[in-house]
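In response to reviewer comment 3 from the previous cycle, which asked for concrete evidence that the modeling workflow produces usable outputs, we include below a single protein chain processed end to end. The sequence was submitted unchanged, and the resulting C-alpha cells are shown without manual editing.
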Amino acid sequence: MNQLIPFADEEAQSSARKNFQRFFKEQRKIAATAELLGEPFSGWWDSVCSFLNNIGLETLVALSPDYESHSRLGEVVRDTKARIEELLEFSPDLRQALTRFSDDQSVRILTIHKSKGLEFDSTIIMAVENEIFFGDQDANRCAFFVGVSRAKRRLVLTHAIERDRPENHIGRWELRRTPQQEYFNYSLPHVNGVDGGVR
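The workflow returned the following C-alpha cells.
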C-alpha cells in the first residue's frame, strides 16, 4: 500500500485500503466460482487487468521512471503475461507458476555476510582482489568460502585491473588492482568446464 500511495494522508490510505479489500473480496468470489466449475485460475488474466485498472495508470507510471513511456509499460505487461502463460504450460497450477515467475531471472545483490545460509543456482562474487580482501586474512578466507559455497551450479569470480575512486569516497582506495590469486586457486579444483579459460 505504501508503494501504491506513498504520499497519501491517512484518510486517503484508509480509503484506498478499503477499495482494495473490496476488490480482493470480489476476486476471491470469482476464483471460488471458477473452482466450483472445475476451471480454477481460468480468469487469472482478467483479474490482473482488473487489478491494474484499479491501481490506475498514474500510480503505475509512478512506480518506475521506465514506465513513463506508456509503450514500455504496455511491453512489460505483455511480456509478463507471455512468461506466465509459458510457465503454465509446464505446470497448470497458477500458484506454482507465479512462484517460479517471481524467482525467474531475478538477481539478488547481497554482501557475503547477508548471503550466509542461502543458496543460488548462480553466484557472482565481484572484486576478488588483494585490495578488497585486506586486513584479517583468516576472517577474509572464511567470508570468501561463505560466498563461494552459495553457488549450486555456477560460480563466477571477477576482478579488475583498475577501479576508479567513487565520488566522495574517504579512506583507503587503490586505483590499481591485483587478483587475489590464492582465492582463485581455491576455486579452480571445483571448476568442471571453464568457458574461455581462467583469467
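Residues 10-36 form the longest helix (27 residues). We consider this sufficient to address the reviewer's concern, and the full set will be provided in the supplementary archive.
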